[in-house]
Write a structure and sequence with these properties.
The complex is a heterodimer of chains A (186) and B (184). Chain A is an all-alpha fold. Helices cover 81% and strands 0% of the residues of chain A. Chain A is built from eight helices and no strands. Chain A starts with a helix and ends with a helix. The radius of gyration of chain B is 51 Å and the shape is elongated. In chain B, helix 1 packs across helix 3. The chains are: A mainly alpha (186), B mainly alpha (184).
């Protein structure tokens, strides 16, 4: 009887700790995951799906990573899922060249606009976001992780399996490209 | 403008460069109009990029995930979770708390030293001093008495006399032997 209650106490404690860890991770990284997915997939609906999938995977793999290395694990999972989505999209486009993807992307982005977006700052934000989305996939991922998600060179190299020097070169290229894109948008 | 210089300007504009590099580019931009314009343009873009916030994850995503994992994510937070997030979720707060802890520990050592209380009054110390002197005098007397006893009673009477007797006995024996030889 005493053993049973002890086991249930330990079980409850473990569950509570797992829940706390999960909730903490979700609170901490959900926006980062969503932002990365959004810039990579250029589409809010797909970003929703990827974020949801990442959160579920976090829950399923709670015991497979430590809290300190969680960020790398989460962003790596996000990156891999985004790549899967992009590959799938590419195949769909090959099958059906008149896909509604671009229209959908346009409408979803337009839907997110509200009157406040009409201010100059918001217009600038939108322009920058559009320019970032136009960057090539590989340098876009590095740029978003570094400049928007605020990750360090070492973390990015871990997440994307790239040497640190390549990360630095990609960031530099992305900055140059972004500058050119913004000049074209002016 | 060559590629290397452009790379340096970009690093300075985005704030990655070292202070020395920043100073060099700053002085270069003062003399070179092209460098100045390029730096200004890149700085403007860097600022716009830095101003970009993270996209807010829709609540529906969290809700859907919650239904799948059967977890309360955002609405039903436990007190433990609140505390955990409050303390560890914000680096600034965590570092502040760590600093406060360190300061508290240091101040404990600095200000909370055990005071050395003066437990005896001056009179008591004087009394103790006198008692020590008296006891030393008593000990000296005991030593003196012991010295006298050893010199007078033990060495002279109990050691000296038997030794003297022993020597006499030996002398007598030798004298007796000499007589016997002379007689022969």
């Amino acid at each position: 009887m005493c053993n049973k209650s002890a086991v249930s106490f330990v079980y409850n404690l473990e569950t509570m700790l797992t829940n706390t860890k999960y909730n903490f991770l979700v609170q901490q990284y959900r926006n980062g995951v969503y932002t990365y997915s959004f810039y990579m997939l250029k589409n809010r609906m797909d970003a929703d799906d990827v974020t949801q999938e990442v959160l579920i995977r976090i829950w399923k793999n709670m015991n497979k990573f430590k809290l300190l290395s969680a960020k790398s694990w989460i962003m790596k999972t996000t990156h891999n899922l985004c790549l899967d989505f992009l590959r799938r999209r590419k195949k769909e486009l090959e099958k059906n060249p008149y896909s509604t993807e671009d229209i959908l992307e346009y409408t979803t982005d337009k839907q997110s606009e509200d009157p406040v977006m009409l201010t100059e700052n918001k217009i600038n934000d939108t322009k920058v976001k559009e320019a970032i989305k136009k960057l090539p996939e590989k340098i876009r991922s590095v740029f978003v992780l570094y400049e928007i998600d605020g990750m360090k060179y070492k973390e990015i190299s871990k997440v994307l399996d790239l040497p640190i020097n390549s990360v630095k070169v990609y960031i530099l290229r992305a900055r140059k490209k972004l500058q050119n894109e913004l000049q074209l948008l002016r | 403008m060559d590629e290397k210089l452009l790379n340096r300007i970009i690093s300075v504009a985005y704030g990655d460069a070292t202070i020395a590099e920043k100073v060099k580019i700053y002085f270069l931009s003062r003399n070179n109009e092209e460098v100045k314009t390029t730096l200004a343009e890149y700085k403007q873009t860097a600022k716009r990029v830095n101003d970009l916030d993270l996209e807010e994850c829709p609540k529906e995503v969290i809700k859907n995930t919650t239904s799948i994992t059967e977890q309360s994510v955002s609405n039903e937070k436990s007190i433990l979770f609140d505390l955990y997030t409050f303390v560890f979720g914000r680096p600034a707060l965590a570092s502040m708390i760590a600093t406060v802890f360190v300061l508290a520990i240091i101040s404990t050592f600095v200000f909370n030293r055990p005071e050395i209380k003066q437990q005896y009054s001056t009179q008591e110390i004087e009394l103790a001093d006198t008692q020590v002197k008296q006891s030393l005098v008593m000990i000296a007397e005991v030593f003196n008495k012991t010295k006298t006893t050893i010199e007078t009673e033990i060495l002279t009477e109990q050691v000296g006399v038997p030794v003297h007797k022993g020597f006499n006995l030996v002398n007598n024996l030798f004298i007796g032997e000499n007589r016997y030889e002379k007689n022969n």
